[in-house]
Amino acid sequence: MTRKRIEITTGFVQADYNFWVGKYMDKFYDGLESKQVLGNRCPTCNRVFVPPRKVCGNCFKTIDLSNNWVKLKDTGTLRNFTTTRIAVSEAGKKKTSEAIPIGMVQFDGSDTSVVYPLLDVQEKDLTIGLKVQVVWNDELKGHPRDIKGFRMLKGGER
Ligand SMILES: [Zn+2]
Questions:
Q1: C-alpha of residue 27 to centroid of ligand 1, in Å
Q2: CA of 56 to the centre of ligand 1 (A)
Q3: What pLDDT score does 155 carry?
Q4: Which run of H or of E encompasses 48?
Q5: Interatomic CA distance for residues 129 and 106, integer angstroms
Q6: 85: CA distance to ligand 1 center in Å?
Q7: More confident residue, 19 or 128
Q8: Which of 19, 41, 71, 82 sits between 20 and 30 A of 11, alpha carbons compared?
Q9: What is the distance in A from the centroid of ligand 1 to the CA of 55?
């Protein structure tokens, strides 16, 4: 029996790739590209999901793709928040000196929440229940980052 020599090396391999997000998220991202927030409503329990889902997480019924779409405003309510000193981007992640607020936002008319940065706000001003609005990126690509983050509505109205 002959033994084969194994060499071990370390390093990084860049692998560019594309993947299909599926019909539901495809429609959602198409909406973002025109600054439209789309959710879908379960026809059985009436819950509205953003981002949309194929199967209702509440009653496990399939939500038909051809209808049940709901157009939502770009406003919502801050349901939870935290801060991080790790900035994440397509280029990777890096530590920052300043705390970056991250919020869990429930779009008005939706029963679920999304997680995005909270922009132009101090941590001391954050409270659960704040009304917030989407800040759109200047360049829209049909991508989650079309939403740059959320800003507080004037005066932090609730
Ligand atoms: Zn349901």
A1: 20
A2: 5
A3: 60
A4: strand 48-49
A5: 10
A6: 37
A7: 128
A8: 19
A9: 8
CA of 62 to the centre of ligand 1 (A): 8
pLDDT of residue 4: 85
The residue assigned the tokens 């989407």 is 134
Sign of CA dihedral 132, 140, 87, 19: positive
Identify the residue whose tokens are 């860049």.
14
Helix, strand, or coil (residue 29):
helix
| Residue range 120-149, pLDDT digits in tens | 998 899 999 999 999 999 999 999 999 999
Query: Which letter, b or e, does each residue of 82-112 get, where b requires 16 or more Cβ atoms within 10 Å of its Cβ?
Result: eeeeeeeeeeeeeeeeeebbbbbbbbebbbb
Contact 7, 116 (CB under 8 A): no
Domains in the chain: boundaries = 23-156
CA–CA dist 135, 118 (Å, integer): 9
Cα–ligand 1 centroid distance for 37 (angstroms): 20
